[in-house]
Design goal:
Number of helices of chain B: 4
Helix content of chain B: 25-40%
CATH topology of chain A: Double Stranded RNA Binding Domain
Number of domains of chain B: 1
Number of strands of chain B: 6
Radius of gyration of chain B: 21 Å
CATH class of chain B: Alpha Beta
Largest sheet of chain B: 6 strands, mixed
Order of helices and strands of chain B: HEEHHEEEEH
Distance between the termini of chain A: 24 Å
Strand order of the largest sheet of chain A: 1-6-5-4-2-3
Number of domains of chain A: 1
Largest sheet of chain A: 6 strands, mixed
CATH architecture of chain A: 2-Layer Sandwich
Oligomer: heterodimer
Strand order of the largest sheet of chain B: 1-6-5-4-2-3
Strand content of chain A: 25-35%
Structural class of chain B: alpha/beta
CATH architecture of chain B: 2-Layer Sandwich
CATH class of chain A: Alpha Beta
Chain lengths: 181, 182
C-alpha cells in the first residue's frame, strides 16, 4: 500500500475508534523484569469480590467470557495454559461497576449553562493482572474503563464489549512477552 | 396491515412501555441451552456472595411472596417441584440487593454564569433494588439462566401491597424472558 493511502486508512480507523469507543485503556509493567522468561500460565485463585453490580456478581456467563477472551490472547502470544504447579504466571482479573457523574461542563469556571446536560452513567472497569507465580510479584497490569450504560442488559452487546475490551487491554502486553511476539 | 398503521402501533407500543417502565428487566442465558432436558426443580442453598439486603432477604413476607410467585411461574413453564429425597434437575437461587444510586436533576435554573468554581451538579440519591433469579443445572452446578429486575424501592419496604405488586411484576416480566423449549 502506498504511504498516503495507508495514512488515510489509519486516519479513518482512528476516527471510527474515537467515535464509538470511549473506553480508556491503560497498563503498566514492572521495571527491571525480563518479561521474556514467562511461557506458561494458569488462573490464580478467583477472589470472589463484589463487582458493585448485582447483575454481574457470580455471573458465570460474564466471568467465562472474560476468561475465554484473555486465554485467546495469551495463547495467540504463544503462552501455554498449564496446571497451577507448572505455570510461570498466575492470571487474575477483576471487574467493577460504579456510577459516575459527567458534569457536561457545568463544573468549569464561569460555565454558561445553557444546554448543559450533566448525566449519571455506569462506568465499568476490567482489570487484568499477570503475577509471577514464583515470587508472587505483579509483572503486568492492564485495565480499561468506560461507560457500560445498557450493556449488561443486552447479552450479545455485553459479550462483544468484553471481547473488544479484553482485546484492547491485551494489545498492550509488552513486546517480547510470549513466544509468539 | 398498512405501513402507517404498523408504524403507529409500534410507536404507541414504545410509548406504553416507556410510560410504565420504572422497572428494568433483562436476562442472560447459556448459549445453545435446551431447557426441555430439564423437568424438576428445587430451591438451592442461598448464594454466598455478596450479602443481599437484610430488609428484603430477612423479611418473611418478601421471601414467601417471592418464592410463591417464582414457583407459580415455574409451574406455568411446565416444571415440577422435585419429590422429597430426589435430586432435582434445576436449582433456583434468588438474590435481593438494595444499593444507593445517583440521579442528576435537570439544570433548569442555571441559565446564568456559574462563577469561578463552576456550578455544582444537582444530584439526588435514591435506593435501587435489584432482584436476581438464577437457574442452575443441579448436576453440573453451572448457571443456565439469570434474570433480573431493577427499580426504585421507594415505598416498597413499608407497604406489603406495594411490595407484592412489585414482586409480581418483576417475576412475571423476568419469566417472559425465560428460555423456551427448542
Amino acid at each position: 500500500m502506498r504511504p498516503l493511502a495507508r495514512l488515510i486508512v489509519v486516519g479513518v480507523s482512528a476516527f471510527t475508534l474515537a467515535a464509538c469507543a470511549t473506553t480508556n485503556v491503560r497498563s503498566f509493567v514492572e521495571r527491571g523484569i525480563d518479561v521474556g522468561q514467562y511461557r506458561t500460565y494458569s488462573w490464580g485463585p478467583a477472589g470472589e469480590q463484589a463487582t458493585g453490580d448485582p447483575r454481574l456478581d457470580n455471573n458465570e456467563f460474564f466471568q467465562e467470557r472474560i476468561q475465554a477472551a484473555v486465554e485467546r490472547h495469551l495463547n495467540a502470544r504463544g503462552f501455554e495454559k498449564t496446571t497451577t504447579e507448572a505455570s510461570d504466571l498466575f492470571i487474575h482479573y477483576h471487574a467493577s461497576v460504579q456510577q459516575l457523574v459527567n458534569p457536561d461542563g457545568v463544573d468549569q469556571p464561569y460555565a454558561t449553562c445553557e444546554g448543559c446536560e450533566p448525566y449519571v452513567y455506569d462506568a465499568g472497569t476490567i482489570l487484568i493482572d499477570l503475577v509471577d507465580a514464583r515470587t508472587h510479584r505483579l509483572v503486568w497490569r492492564g485495565w480499561a474503563e468506560g461507560s457500560i450504560d445498557g450493556v449488561v442488559d443486552d447479552q450479545a452487546w455485553m459479550e462483544k464489549r468484553v471481547d473488544d475490551t479484553v482485546a484492547r487491554i491485551m494489545e498492550r502486553l509488552p513486546r517480547g512477552m510470549g513466544r509468539a511476539s | 396491515m398498512s405501513r402507517l398503521s404498523q408504524f403507529t402501533i409500534a410507536a404507541i407500543g414504545t410509548l406504553a412501555i416507556t410510560g410504565c417502565a420504572t422497572m428494568n428487566v433483562s436476562s442472560h442465558v447459556q448459549r445453545g441451552l435446551d431447557i426441555s432436558r430439564y423437568h424438576t426443580y428445587d430451591w438451592g442453598p442461598a448464594d454466598a456472595l455478596p450479602a443481599g439486603d437484610p430488609r428484603l432477604e430477612q423479611d418473611p413476607f418478601f421471601q414467601d411472596h417471592l418464592r410463591g410467585e417464582v414457583e407459580k411461574a415455574m409451574t406455568l413453564h411446565g416444571f415440577e417441584w422435585s419429590a422429597a429425597g430426589e435430586r432435582p434437575d434445576l436449582l433456583m437461587h434468588y438474590h435481593a440487593n438494595i444499593s444507593e444510586r445517583l440521579d442528576v436533576d435537570r439544570l433548569d435554573v442555571q441559565r446564568g454564569y456559574c462563577g469561578e468554581n463552576g456550578c455544582d451538579v444537582p444530584t439526588r440519591q435514591y435506593e435501587a433494588g435489584t432482584l436476581v433469579i438464577d437457574v442452575i443445572d443441579a448436576r453440573t452446578n453451572r448457571l443456565l439462566w439469570r434474570g433480573w429486575a431493577q427499580g426504585a424501592v421507594k415505598g416498597m419496604l413499608a407497604n406489603q401491597d406495594t411490595m407484592a405488586r412489585q414482586i409480581n411484576e418483576a417475576v412475571a416480566r423476568m419469566f417472559e424472558e425465560f428460555p423456551k423449549p427448542l
